[in-house]
Amino acid sequence: MQALFPLGRIFATLGALDAMARASQTPDEFLRRHVAGDWTELDAHDVAENLYGLKYGFRLLSSYRTNAGTVVWVITEADRSSTTILLPQEY
Fold it and tell me: What pTM, to 2 d.p., does this model score?
Protein backbone atom coordinates (compact mmCIF):
# COMPACT_ATOMS: atom_id res chain seq x y z
CA MET A 1 0.00 0.00 0.00
CA GLN A 2 1.23 3.45 -0.88
CA ALA A 3 0.86 6.26 1.64
CA LEU A 4 -1.42 9.02 0.36
CA PHE A 5 -0.15 11.57 2.91
CA PRO A 6 2.42 11.88 5.71
CA LEU A 7 1.29 10.96 9.22
CA GLY A 8 3.68 13.28 11.06
CA ARG A 9 4.27 12.46 14.72
CA ILE A 10 2.05 9.64 15.93
CA PHE A 11 0.16 9.77 19.21
CA ALA A 12 -2.38 7.49 20.88
CA THR A 13 -4.51 8.05 23.94
CA LEU A 14 -4.44 5.61 26.82
CA GLY A 15 -8.06 4.69 26.08
CA ALA A 16 -7.28 3.81 22.48
CA LEU A 17 -4.17 1.84 23.45
CA ASP A 18 -6.21 -0.11 26.00
CA ALA A 19 -8.99 -0.82 23.47
CA MET A 20 -6.49 -2.08 20.88
CA ALA A 21 -4.70 -4.24 23.47
CA ARG A 22 -8.00 -5.81 24.57
CA ALA A 23 -8.66 -6.64 20.91
CA SER A 24 -5.13 -8.01 20.38
CA GLN A 25 -4.52 -5.37 17.71
CA THR A 26 -1.75 -2.84 17.21
CA PRO A 27 -1.83 0.81 16.19
CA ASP A 28 0.01 -0.10 12.97
CA GLU A 29 -3.03 -1.95 11.64
CA PHE A 30 -5.22 1.15 11.89
CA LEU A 31 -2.49 3.56 10.74
CA ARG A 32 -1.83 1.50 7.59
CA ARG A 33 -5.51 1.58 6.66
CA HIS A 34 -5.80 5.30 7.40
CA VAL A 35 -2.76 6.40 5.38
CA ALA A 36 -3.81 4.20 2.44
CA GLY A 37 -7.23 5.87 2.27
CA ASP A 38 -9.15 2.83 3.50
CA TRP A 39 -12.14 4.75 4.80
CA THR A 40 -14.63 1.92 4.22
CA GLU A 41 -16.06 2.23 7.72
CA LEU A 42 -17.08 5.87 7.16
CA ASP A 43 -20.33 7.04 5.61
CA ALA A 44 -20.33 8.62 2.15
CA HIS A 45 -20.34 12.17 3.52
CA ASP A 46 -17.23 11.58 5.65
CA VAL A 47 -15.44 9.83 2.78
CA ALA A 48 -16.17 12.87 0.58
CA GLU A 49 -14.82 15.15 3.32
CA ASN A 50 -11.61 13.10 3.47
CA LEU A 51 -11.18 13.21 -0.30
CA TYR A 52 -11.63 16.99 -0.19
CA GLY A 53 -9.23 17.23 2.77
CA LEU A 54 -6.67 15.11 0.97
CA LYS A 55 -6.81 17.34 -2.10
CA TYR A 56 -6.91 20.70 -0.33
CA GLY A 57 -4.95 20.03 2.86
CA PHE A 58 -7.59 19.67 5.57
CA ARG A 59 -7.88 17.28 8.50
CA LEU A 60 -8.41 13.58 7.74
CA LEU A 61 -10.56 11.29 9.90
CA SER A 62 -10.90 7.53 9.93
CA SER A 63 -13.17 5.46 12.13
CA TYR A 64 -12.55 1.77 12.69
CA ARG A 65 -14.02 -0.93 14.90
CA THR A 66 -11.59 -3.16 16.79
CA ASN A 67 -12.01 -6.94 16.85
CA ALA A 68 -13.64 -6.45 20.28
CA GLY A 69 -16.16 -3.96 18.83
CA THR A 70 -14.74 -0.71 20.20
CA VAL A 71 -14.69 2.25 17.82
CA VAL A 72 -11.35 4.03 17.44
CA TRP A 73 -10.71 7.18 15.47
CA VAL A 74 -7.54 8.09 13.62
CA ILE A 75 -7.13 11.81 12.93
CA THR A 76 -4.36 13.43 10.90
CA GLU A 77 -4.09 17.18 11.34
CA ALA A 78 -4.49 19.49 8.35
CA ASP A 79 -0.79 20.43 8.33
CA ARG A 80 0.13 16.70 8.48
CA SER A 81 2.29 17.37 11.54
CA SER A 82 0.62 14.69 13.65
CA THR A 83 -1.79 11.79 13.70
CA THR A 84 -3.67 10.69 16.81
CA ILE A 85 -5.48 7.44 17.57
CA LEU A 86 -8.24 7.99 20.11
CA LEU A 87 -11.67 6.91 21.21
CA PRO A 88 -14.58 9.09 20.01
CA GLN A 89 -15.45 10.08 23.57
CA GLU A 90 -11.88 11.36 24.04
CA TYR A 91 -12.21 13.91 21.23
Answer: 0.96
